[in-house]
Amino acid sequence: MPKFDIVMRQANDFIESAFAQEYSEQELKTMEFIISQTTKADIELANKDQIKRIELSAQDFAKMINANIEQIYRDANDLSDALMNKKINFKYLDEKGRPAFEKQTFLTSMSYKAGIIKIGINPFVLPYFLEIKERFTEFNLRYLIAMGSSYGIKLYKLLKQYQTIGGREVLLAELRTQFGISDDKYKLYSGFKRDVIETAKRHINDHTDIQIEYSEIKLGRKVHKLKFYIHGKLTQLKQAKLAYLSYVKDQPADTKSKFAQVKLLVTEYETKKKDPFTLTLVKEGFEWFLTNKVSQYDPNSCTPLQYFGRDTLFGN
Q1: Residue-number span of the structural domain to which 32 is assigned
Q2: What pTM was computed for the model?
Q3: What is the pLDDT of residue 309?
Q4: How far apart are alpha carbons 202 and 216 in whole angstroms?
Q5: E strands, the chain, where?
Q6: Domain count across the chain
Q7: Distance between CA 316 and CA 309 in Å, rounded?
Q8: Which residues does residue 227 pair with via DSSP β-bridges, in sequence order?
């Protein structure tokens, strides 16, 4: 999905801001796409308290929210009603270290005309995505768009922050707050686990660049918090590079073979702990390998790479 293959950076304070109400999958995807369209130049809009405006074709919008293009007028109208009434809770410490909060809507306007969706963004939220130099998280929009669960989108962002640490513990009550789930919904943990946590886990594991598991921590006889375990997946680009190096090393030591020369270069560079893919001969061989030995290649995908007779990099 090239239209949504965008690396985005968000402040952790924004990621940790709880939803005042539940968001649907379509609402979150729309919001995340809008965030991906912000640029460094928009900081001037934030400084002047001016609205950021973007445009999106009805076709791309329908694809993003998984809607029927023939019904996009209705769906966009319903979505605008929902988003204009949704708020985000920003909790922080003021200049004296005292707890403070602010509730803001994300959008200021949304319109549809002649196949074009026009959206206005509240200037208050722009600094959470622009010129962030610390306490931020990066991820690709394509993973959020690929998921079919609002819980998955929110949980992915909450856990992606902790990928380098490898785990995160979260109170059940805090998870409910993060998801904007009301007190009268999912009163039993079994329903919350099935419809929220397990659904989010499945979508994250199937469609993103991380793999998660979790264990339950009890206080007395009740589950009190969840401990998540977070592991990064290899993109197909990284898988292909590993597969190519393996392919090269398996070649016979024939001095007349181009791959024999590549094999010597790879061995030399790995011994020196240098990246062999900086060498022209290695890069040319890698391009040949991708064209002739790899099927259904998507460099940013995290699905197992299929190549030259093996089902995947990790075995048959």
Answers
A1: 1-142
A2: 0.76
A3: 61
A4: 17
A5: 7-11, 52-57, 87-93, 99-105, 107-113, 116-121, 136-140, 167-171, 210-219, 222-232, 294-295, 306-307
A6: 3
A7: 9
A8: 169, 215
